[in-house]
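Thread: sanity check for a docking pose with 2-acetamido-2-deoxy-beta-D-glucopyranose

Original post by kr_44:
Hi all, I'm comparing my docking run against an independent structure prediction. Below are the sequence and the ligand SMILES. Could someone generate the full complex and paste the structure tokens? I mainly care about where the ligand ends up relative to the chain.
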Amino acid sequence: MGLSSKLMVPTTLFIVLSLSLTITHVQSNGEGFISVQIFEKGLDFAKDLLIDKAVSSIIPLQLPDIEKTVKIRLIGKVHILLSNITINQVDIASSYVSTGESGIVLVASGATANLSMRWQYSYTTWLIPIAITDKGDASVQVEGMVVGLTANLENQEGKLKLHLLECGCHVKDISIKLDGGASWLYQGVVDAFEAKIASAVESSISNKIREGIIKLDSLLQSLPEHIPVYSIAVLNVTFVDNPVLSNSSIEFDINGLVTSKDAVLVSNHNHKGWKGSFSCSSLAKMVQISLQDDVFNSASFVYFDEDYMHWIVDKVPDQSLLNTSGWRYIAPQLYKQYPNDDMNLNISVSSPPIIKVAKDDIDAIINLDLTIYVIDAGQVIPVACISLEISTSSSAEIMGNNLAGSIRLKDFTTYLKWSEIGDLQIHLLQPVMSTLIKTALLPYVNLHLRRGIPLPLPHGFTLQNAEIVCTCSRAIVCSDLSLPGQYHLSSSHFATTKHSNVT
Ligand SMILES: *[C@@H]1O[C@H](CO)[C@@H](O)[C@H](O)[C@H]1NC(C)=O
Ligand SMILES: *[C@@H]1O[C@H](CO)[C@@H](O)[C@H](O)[C@H]1NC(C)=O
Ligand SMILES: *[C@@H]1O[C@H](CO)[C@@H](O)[C@H](O)[C@H]1NC(C)=O
Ligand SMILES: *[C@@H]1O[C@H](CO)[C@@H](O)[C@H](O)[C@H]1NC(C)=O
Ligand SMILES: *[C@@H]1O[C@H](CO)[C@@H](O)[C@H](O)[C@H]1NC(C)=O
Ligand SMILES: *[C@@H]1O[C@H](CO)[C@@H](O)[C@H](O)[C@H]1NC(C)=O
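Reply from moderator J.T.:
Ran it for you. Here is the predicted complex with 2-acetamido-2-deoxy-beta-D-glucopyranose included:
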């Protein structure tokens, strides 16, 4: 036997917002060299992930037992106990997220939930003084549930702190179906317990949201302050200033400079305010990550400082360039003095390469000394040193989650720094230098540049359909994100179906 009824809990308009707190709205003081902006599409993505994760972590949710003595006509006082009340499934019909100066508002509405429980009763009458008892199962369907929260993000000593300002759950309809039991019992349960079940659902879900926010907050607290840039350097991803919440995006500024792994030093980068006007066409992509050229320069500085910019070249595609016979016509004195000897080149960058992001281009100036060695009878003899100033342009590309690039030769100048073999004709050297730059130096540098600088993304997320725009002094990555592991979040053992639509 199954009876069912619906009770309309008076639908008070669910008010999520109460702006009792004034949020200090601190404008960036321009300390951050990387800025990350999450647009509406990204906020929706994050919201769907959060809801998905929240639902799977909430269910199955056990509510406290409900017990009550109910007076039922013709029967008298009946003691009823509802136990093992469990929410087994939650479906969310629609949800939305909005941001503003007041914080982040997330509302899921039209949610339904299925509950199961056990009922049992006992009573005695003056006629039959022995206790009469019975028990069975029941299922409860909750409909029109609205769940909402308002939270705010704040910078607390370089970490993001998530504050829950407001949170609530409101149940609109509830219907109970008993398996077994008498119709008088059914009416008793419906009359006496509907409101209690509804409020138990409301408070349990609100509590779960509070717990969830605490977990999310500790997740934010556990975000690293540094991301390793290979083995020698780190990218400082400490948050700078409070996140700026506008009506369609959240913007985070992070320090964004690369420092050597052990250094405590903060390079004094000249920072000019740069709240520029450029923005990825904000509806199209989830996030925008802007890197000022100081980021690249800080990396360049560290690699230079850590002595990573010296190379001994003893192999080139045209190996005759590393034999004095190949220099016979360029530097006759060299050939004369060391005929048919092998040569080595010591390429040594002499100051940190300077990187400038320009419109549609990233330019770099590399100053280096190229020392020519001759290997004569097993002895390595330095014979001349040529200084080069190389100007390159580069195109940026995304490799995994890294911003990588490759440089091309634009131009270079040479002068002879010193020579043990007399004066060298610089104009004769130019073609050889050009060949060496193109075939030995740049491929080697590009091999390293292809690894790139890691972009500050939370663990597990990957860029998708990223585009790079270079403007005056900033490289901007506009991208969608995906979370390849997200299917684990909604693994089927939660016995749940979830979907949410953006409204
Ligand atoms: C409580 O309910 C859950 C879910 O319906 C069920 O798996 C479990 O066996 C029940 N426990 C008891 C003691 O009835
Ligand atoms: C939840 O309730 C709905 C409507 O009564 C039903 O279609 C659905 O199968 C139920 N799900 C579970 C897991 O009981
Ligand atoms: C968001 O703010 C901008 C200007 O700050 C305004 O033009 C726009 O209409 C606002 N959008 C919404 C949905 O409020
Ligand atoms: C990282 O950035 C923060 C914020 O700008 C700064 O206070 C801190 O000193 C930096 N850490 C290092 C090692 O440079
Ligand atoms: C340098 O080149 C000459 C001519 O090609 C060759 O005979 C000689 O063996 C080379 N020297 C070495 C060390 O390979
Ligand atoms: C290469 O040249 C640089 C500077 O010209 C020098 O400091 C370095 O010791 C040289 N390396 C080798 C292996 O000779």
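Residues 183-221 form the longest helix (39 residues). Hope that helps with the comparison, let us know if your pose agrees.
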